[in-house]
């Protein structure tokens, strides 16, 4: 299995390779999902690739953000530049960019980012069909899910995160940072709202969660650590073990890479699992507690609700503190000078200290071990029994820093063969352990020495001066006459040429075919010049997304042209029955436009017990899908397909790709603003969301069940007894609901309302306008649909509805309004 490490800068890159990584993934200055990292410019990427290939390692570059129309040409140029620099693969999220890349850069190897939310066999099949060579699977898959995907498609490489931070939401399905702060995770600028404090409250007030008991950081996952489960990962068919952390410091990358390298080598050598000391080092460098994530199903340790940042390692408890704030601590683990400590107090800010001076029985010491009672000076008040954690291990980090700076590490040994004769040029062959040879000869001929002859000592000295390269001269053999001489400048030059040719041979092994500039420019221009879709020539449909048959009937009764019926029982946890679906199906009979479209869930894992495909495969002719696996299945079954906004269609090229598959309606990303929407210049087949609560997160982990549900194996279903919301520090309330598959959904605290801008939206000529009504009460739904129906009818008749009055009527129904990104956009 490949060990794949992160690098946010050059030092982290070197830390990864010098500590055992087989490959490193890095980001450029643009189009990267970690825009806050230092990242690499093109010359640095070129240097990184050359260095890695020289050492038989690989470099993958992340271009894993959504690309808007105005960025598209520059993004293709960037991909061309990366291909020319021989990067080993590009990690991509945007399906439009991937499709364009296959056309203009057909030789470039693509990996599907975890942001594409590939989580089942159908998704793997679809991604494979689009030419991707590897899939970075969603982090929510259990080992049995991974194995199922691998067994179905063994020729598709599967990459899995094994260490580091987890997202609470499925990656690629999170709009929380975007909608709340304008910083989009899909565009590489996530503000990490899941690491903030929230209170879980119920509308009745009877089922509020106690923060003192359950913690305040209810969406903050513990860090993933699978170092003990490498045999299971191998058996499941994983080919690449991915460490998260492009925002982490180089020392972190060094420690984690080395730990997993040792564990992998141990597995290969003896089949054994790592000793506890290896995991202990991982805890010391950074942790929010460790869990196995979803690999065996999320357990009670999945969240880190007490502390959203590094908690360190428990090292003791406070014994007493004197009036001068000198504190005594009884240790359970070793500490030393330079270590960083934090004391967890019951209330207030936790005091921190760097150990500069400590005493045992009045004597100053640099180290202390378990059982010792040490005295330290603090600047804040603490109390007996308070826990002490070590958050900075100076010895461990010093070792990591040494591994990065060590000039003797990571060297490539070469042997030199020298042949020289009187009146002949000196010939030099440098050969590495892989049989690569670099050959050169001097321009001048050897002469009899007058003073210094070319003996082994002189040749080793001059030929062994390989400067700041990673090559070291090991053995030297000399053939020919003795007592000869050559200018030292000639020896320097022949060494330089031979080494240069050896490097060329080593790099040639990793050389990949590249696209010619003429082909690239021709295909790129043809792609950019492709006709844009025509404007929609029919009146837009008013569609309403609902979660129950009762909501569907209400929506149709009050003027909806079409309802999008979610099947997963959002909120109620009750899926529509077979008989109810047949009743809904009857409404489609004789209609040119189906009145009821079933909507498959965004997530359907291989081991899910319930099959939504069976609900629709016999009766309905059209359906809406929200993941690549269901898209693949629906196309194979011959359905008329509509796609949901969970597919993150952000540019005209993604729209054209889906249209080319025969997709009849595509819901655009709600992160697009008006300027970007106008850049589409024709949006036939497009659906736009104009009203309702947008889903911010979908999570495999159910906070309600884990905290209020009692026994995890036999949840008491608190979600069926009350309605809940998450309240942040500013008192914004985010509705939280559970579906029939026990997945957890968080919705926006503000209702999108575009009634005032309805004329502008209709002028774009979309295929349909959607009201998100899944969380609406019956009176809200009825009035909202009726209001938009009236307004649309008047506008289509070229009248002038009183949109401000309509807005006030809608505002009286529920929570405050927002226009989301229609005006502000995202960064």
Automatic annotation (TrEMBL):
Pfam families (alphabetical):
DUF3656 (PF12392), Peptidase_U32 (PF01136)
Q: Where is the Peptidase U32 collagenase domain?
A: 388-507
Instruction: Write down the superkingdom of origin.
Output: Bacteria
Q: What is this protein called?
A: Peptidase U32
């Amino acid at each position: 299995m490949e060990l794949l490490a992160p690098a946010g800068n050059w030092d982290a890159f070197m830390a990864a390779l010098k500590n055992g990584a087989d490959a490193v993934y890095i980001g450029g200055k643009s189009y990267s999902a970690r825009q806050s990292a230092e990242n690499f410019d093109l010359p640095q990427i070129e240097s990184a690739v050359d260095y890695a290939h020289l050492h038989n390692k690989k470099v993958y570059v992340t271009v894993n953000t959504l690309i808007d129309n105005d960025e598209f040409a520059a993004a293709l140029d960037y991909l061309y530049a990366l291909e020319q620099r021989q990067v080993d693969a590009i990690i991509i999220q945007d399906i439009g960019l991937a499709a364009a890349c296959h056309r203009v850069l057909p030789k470039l190897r693509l990996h599907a980012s975890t942001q594409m939310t590939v989580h089942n066999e159908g998704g793997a099949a679809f991604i494979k069909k689009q030419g991707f060579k590897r899939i970075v699977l969603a982090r929510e898959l259990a080992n049995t899910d991974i194995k199922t995907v691998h067994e179905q498609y063994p020729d598709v490489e599967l990459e899995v995160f094994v260490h580091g931070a987890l997202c609470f939401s499925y990656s690629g399905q999170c709009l929380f940072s975007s909608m709340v702060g304008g910083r989009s995770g899909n565009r590489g600028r996530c503000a990490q709202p899941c690491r903030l404090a929230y209170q879980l409250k119920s509308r009745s007030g009877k089922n509020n969660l106690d923060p003192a008991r359950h913690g305040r950081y209810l969406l903050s996952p513990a860090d993933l650590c699978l170092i003990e489960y490498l045999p299971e990962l191998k058996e499941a068919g994983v080919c690449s073990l991915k460490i998260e952390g492009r925002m982490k410091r180089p020392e972190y990358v060094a420690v984690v890479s080395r730990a997993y390298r040792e564990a992998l080598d141990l597995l290969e050598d003896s089949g054994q699992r790592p000793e506890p000391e290896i995991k202990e080092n991982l805890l010391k460098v950074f942790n929010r507690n460790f869990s196995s994530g979803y690999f065996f199903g999320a357990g009670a340790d999945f969240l880190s609700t007490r502390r959203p940042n590094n908690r360190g390692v428990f090292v003791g408890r406070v014994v007493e503190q004197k009036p001068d704030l000198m504190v005594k601590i009884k240790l359970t683990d070793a500490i030393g000078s330079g270590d960083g400590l934090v004391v967890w107090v019951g209330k207030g800010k936790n005091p921190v200290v760097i150990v500069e001076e400590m005493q045992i029985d009045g004597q100053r010491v640099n180290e202390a071990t378990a059982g010792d009672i040490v005295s330290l000076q603090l600047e804040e008040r603490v109390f007996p029994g308070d826990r002490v954690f070590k958050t900075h291990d100076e010895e461990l980090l010093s070792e990591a820093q040494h591994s990065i700076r060590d000039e003797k590490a990571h060297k490539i040994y070469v042997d030199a063969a020298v042949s020289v004769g009187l009146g002949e040029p000196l010939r030099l062959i440098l050969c590495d352990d892989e049989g690569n040879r670099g050959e050169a000869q001097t321009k001048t001929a050897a002469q009899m020495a007058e003073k210094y002859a070319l003996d082994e000592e002189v040749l080793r000295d001059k030929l062994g001066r390989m400067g700041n390269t990673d090559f070291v001269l090991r053995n030297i053999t000399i053939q020919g006459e003795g007592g000869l001489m050559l200018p030292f400048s000639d020896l320097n030059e022949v060494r330089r040429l031979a080494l240069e040719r050896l490097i060329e041979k080593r790099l040639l092994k990793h050389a990949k075919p590249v696209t010619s500039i003429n082909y690239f420019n021709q295909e790129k221009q043809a792609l950019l010049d492709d006709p844009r879709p025509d404007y929609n020539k029919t009146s837009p449909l008013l569609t309403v997304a609902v979660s129950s048959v009762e909501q569907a009937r209400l929506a149709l009764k009050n003027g909806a042209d079409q309802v999008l019926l979610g099947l997963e029982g959002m909120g109620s946890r009750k899926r529509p029955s077979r008989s109810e679906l047949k009743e809904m199906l009857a409404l489609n009979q004789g209609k040119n436009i189906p009145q009821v479209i079933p909507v498959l869930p965004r997530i359907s894992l291989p081991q899910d017990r319930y099959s939504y495909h069976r609900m629709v495969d016999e009766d309905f002719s059209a359906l809406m899908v929200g993941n690549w696996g269901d898209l693949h299945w629906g196309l194979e079954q011959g359905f008329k397909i509509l796609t949901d906004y969970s597919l993150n269609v952000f540019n005209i090229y993604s729209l054209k790709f889906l249209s080319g598959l025969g997709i009849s309606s595509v819901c655009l990303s709600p992160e697009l603003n008006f300027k970007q929407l106008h850049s589409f210049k024709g949006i036939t087949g497009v659906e736009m969301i104009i009203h309702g609560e947008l889903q911010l997160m979908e999570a495999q982990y159910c906070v309600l069940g884990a905290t209020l549900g009692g026994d995890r194996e036999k949840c008491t279903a608190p979600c069926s007894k009350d309605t809940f919301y998450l309240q942040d520090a500013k008192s914004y309330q985010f509705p939280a609901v559970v579906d029939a598959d026990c997945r957890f959904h968080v919705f926006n605290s503000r209702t999108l309302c575009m009634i005032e801008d309805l004329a502008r939206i209709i002028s774009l000529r979309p295929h349909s306008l959607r009201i998100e009504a899944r969380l609406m009460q019956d009176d809200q739904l009825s009035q909202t649909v009726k209001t938009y129906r009236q307004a649309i009818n008047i506008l289509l008749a070229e009248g002038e509805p009183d949109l401000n009055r309509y807005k006030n009527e809608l505002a009286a129904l529920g929570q405050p309004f927002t226009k989301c990104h229609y005006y502000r956009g995202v960064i």
